[in-house]
Structures are given as C-alpha cells and as structure tokens.
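Incident log, structure service

09:12 report received: a user says their structure output differs between two submissions of the same chain.
09:20 pulled the input from the user's history:
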Amino acid sequence: MRGEQTKRKRVALVTGGNRGIGLEVCRQLAGTGATVLLGARDPHAGAAAASELTSADLTVRPVQLDITSDADIAAARELVEREFGALDILVNNAAVLIGEDAGILEVTDSDLRETFDVNVFAQLAMCRAFIPAMVARRYGRVVNVSSTAGQLQSTMAYAPAYSISKTALNALTKVVAGSVSGTGVLVNCVNPGWVRTSMGGPHASLSAEQGADTIVWAATLADNGPTGAFLSNRRPIAW
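09:34 re-ran on a clean worker, output below:
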C-alpha cells in the first residue's frame, strides 16, 4: 500500500479554493505535482479559478462544494472515490468572518450560529467524509486553516464569533488527530498569518503566497511529521 502511494500522483481537495489563500494553496500544491480539486461554493467562480491554473499547465479541477451542504460533500466524496479511490490531502480552508465589529455581548445569535456552522461543524463534516478512506489507505494529510485570533493566550477581544470558532477548530483538530493516531494520517491546524485577501484586507502584512506556505508544507509532511499541532511559519505555536 505504501508503495502504491509513492507511485501515484497525490490527490488534494482544497475548500474555498477559488480565491485568496485557498487559490494560492491550490497553485502551490499543483506545483508539487499533485492533482488538485478546487472546491468552490460558486461553480462559475470555481471554474474561472481552475482555468487560471490549468492555463499554467497545472492539474487542477473545479468541484462545486458548499461545505455546509451535505449533498455537496457527498457528491465530492463520490467523485473522489469513483475517480481516485481516496484523497491524500484535505485542506479545510473555507471560512467566514461575520459580526467582526460587534463585542461578545452584542454579537447576534444568528452570526454566532452561522460562524460555527461554517468554521466548525462543516469542518467536522469534511473530516468525517474523507478521513476514513485515508485511514484505510494508511496515508493522509489534513490541514485545518485556523488563526491566532483563536489562541487562548490572546485577549480574544477581536471578532468574537470568529475567534471562538477558531478556538473550537483548534480543539477539533486535536481530537481528530488523536482519533487517527498511528494510522498514517496527520492532522494539523495552521495559522497563515495576516494575509492580503478579501478577508484580511489590503493592509495585511503577508501576501497570499506567504500565507499559503505553511499550509502547503503541512499538507505534504513526511510520515514522521507533526500531528495534532498548531503550526505557523513551519513550526508549532502555543494554543
């Protein structure tokens, strides 16, 4: 089984892959020789983004994927199973930032629920859909894109719904990593830093290329790489 894994091209799925960090992760993973499935909620945006990358001779395929849709996740899993057998790499990048300027005592219940639906529960749904086949193959890399906004050692006053959801995602990462320990599947979360994207804004300190670096590094770890870790700049950071 390990020999088969080294011979075949890696297959990666990146959620929220049509723009920003997600698009750059798709570009860099495809640059390693992987076949990349570019997940996008809007199929037209996904097709346009994939076309940009395929025009550079990269193997990228758009996949309609709203991670809050059970039907979309099931369809993506069926596609992977039919054409590739299993994923090698899952990058859970898609996320929302809403109610950014509201304090914790003012943020609405609807904003909290929507944030957790996307940033936590949908991430778990993706793990449930794709990790079992990785375990069966004894190989997999799962990267959950997090943020230092979710670090417990921080003040956590910024964007409370987002910050709390990222703390929960970090906890989810550790639990999932522990549940598949010793199976060849490595599960980590990554802080990409403050990146110039539609979410990060034009004044952020890092480019998308810089923000994607540790994500791609974690997605291509050697078998003895870390698991259940919170990573930034290619090294573990405090929770």
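09:41 both user submissions now match this output. Likely a transient worker issue. Closing.
09:42 reviewer note: The two ends are 35 Å apart (CA to CA). The helical segments are 2-7, 20-31, 43-54, 70-83, 109-137, 160-179, 208-219.
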